[in-house]
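Handout, page 2. Input:
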Amino acid sequence: MTTLVIEDNSVQARQFVQYVRTLPFVTVKNEDKQAANGAALAEGKSAVRLSDKFRGAFSKEAGESFREHIKTMREEWDSI
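Output:
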């Protein structure tokens, strides 16, 4: 048995899920996002990309400053 997680984020996805529900050999479970994330983490995968999760969390200037800080840290680490 294979488990697929379909994120309901568009009209096409909802239509697809409605179609799949009509098939006799498919069982559709409604899961909240937290449960889906837990299943993905159990498989060693991330259900949500970090870039999507933190989009807009930093201002553009703070993001650039953070990126430069990380670049400097990596250069220091590589020089050891």
